[in-house]
Amino acid sequence: MARMEPIPLEQMTPAQKEMYDNIMSGPRGRIAGPMIPWFRSPELGDLSQKVGAFLRFSSCLPDRITEFTILLVSRRWTAQIEWWAHHPLALKAGLDPAIADAIEARERPHFVNRDEEVVYDLAMELMDNHRVSDGTYQAALDELGEQGLVELIGVLGYYNYVAMVLNCFEILPDGELPLKP
Question: Which domain range does residue 101 map to?
Answer without folding.
Answer: 63-168
